[in-house]
Structure formats: structure tokens, C-alpha cells
Amino acid sequence: MPRSRFFPLSRVVEMNYPTVYSITEDEIDINELLKQISLTSTGAAAIFTGMVRGVTTRDNVHETAHLEYESYKPMAEAKMKQVADEIRERWGTVEGIAIVQRIGRLYPRTPTVLIACTSAHRDTGVFDAARYGIDRLKEIVPVWKKEVGPEGNTWMVGNYIPKAGE
Amino acid sequence: MGVHSVELQIPAHTNVAGFKSLLVEKFPALMGLMDHMLISVNQEYAFDEAIIPDNAEIALFPPVSGG
Description:
The complex is a heterodimer of chains A (166) and B (67). Helix content of chain A is 29%, strand content 32%. Chain A has 166 residues and is α+β, with helices and mostly antiparallel strands. Chain A has one domain: Alpha-Beta Complex (Aldehyde Oxidoreductase, domain 3), CATH 3.90.1170.40. In chain A, a hairpin with a 2-residue loop joins β9 and β10. Chain B has a single domain (1-67), classed as Roll (Ubiquitin-like (UB roll)). The A-B interface holds A 50, 69, 71-72, 74-76, 78, 101, 112-113, 134, 137-145, 155-164, 166 and B 36, 38, 40, 43, 45-47, 50, 59, 61-67.
């Protein structure tokens, strides 16, 4: 008899969907993360990584020697889990989710953050899901970066004020 | 402030707004910064009216800028 006769289908499926999230000082291992969020049913992965930009030519033109990241780790990881939950509420087709923020001193050409979502096919909203993930991380996950360049140090400050329940 | 964390005794049923006032009294250097700080209580964002529970972990920080 099929298992779904005994358990609500959604629950069975949910248990099999991997969600990984972490704040880490280690290099982001894209292949390893992809392995962790891929199922036999997975046919697509949308992977976004933010990187340290050494030369900025848009808006405020400047150079960056490195960035220094700090986090309020326990809350940051809880908020990453929340971002993953929000993705699942909006895109039921997403299978695996990985959200990783690297902290510490990071130099140009280095990935600093990764959001990856997998699904059966590419036309299931998986690109939008990953986009939502990075946008949301930048709103509610307590991580900060200090930019160090030829003109000194600047703590970057976000402009999003979370609302109650976020 | 020169400290990473402190332990404070506050009256029962103090809300976030009251807590901010107490904190500025104790650390006047925070005066100008308080309006630009986000506050979390037990790792959830909290706002002026929220009552602070017993043994709460409270954090003050600027709007986030990760990624």
C-alpha cells in the first residue's frame, strides 16, 4: 500500500526536502552544498552567490581592499531558517534550499554568501525563489560588513527596518 | 560602551521602550544611537510596546548589511 495512504502526502514530502543554513568562517563549498540539496527528482538548481567587489563603478565609484563580516550568529541562523520557510510557503515546487553566509575578512573575487534552491524543472519559479532568498537575507538576517579601502573603514548600514513578526 | 554584553536587572513587565530608556540612563553614550538601532528579544525583532520576559536575551544593532 502506498505510504501516502497512512501519512498526509505533504508531510511525507516535506520530510525529504533538505534545508541547510549556516554562518561560517570557512570557504563556501558550492559543490558540497549542491550535493546536500539535490534529490533524485531534482533537475534544476538556481544558485546565487554574492561576492566581494574590488572595484565599484556604479553610483559611488570606489575601490575595496576587503570586507569584514560579523554576525549575531544564533539569531542569524534562526532567521536563515525563517527565510527558507518563507521560500517554501511561496514556492511549493522548491525541493532543497541552502543558505550560507561566510563571515570574517574576505577579499575581492571571493563568494561571501550563497543561496541555492533546487526543483524538478527550471520553469517552476526556482530562479525567483533564490532571488527572494538573497533579498530577504539582506533584510532580516543579522550580519554586518565593514568595507576597508584606500580611504579607510566604513561600516555598511542597511536601510530595511523589520516589522513585528519578521 | 566598550563592552560586548552586560547583565542587567530590570523591573518586571518592562517593555522595549522602557528598556531603551533604562539603557540610555546607564550608558549615556547610546543616547544619539538609540533611534537607529534595531532591537531583538530572544532573537526575534522586538518593538517599543513588547514586554520583555524573564531572563531575556536582548540585542541592539544597526540595520543589517550582510550578503
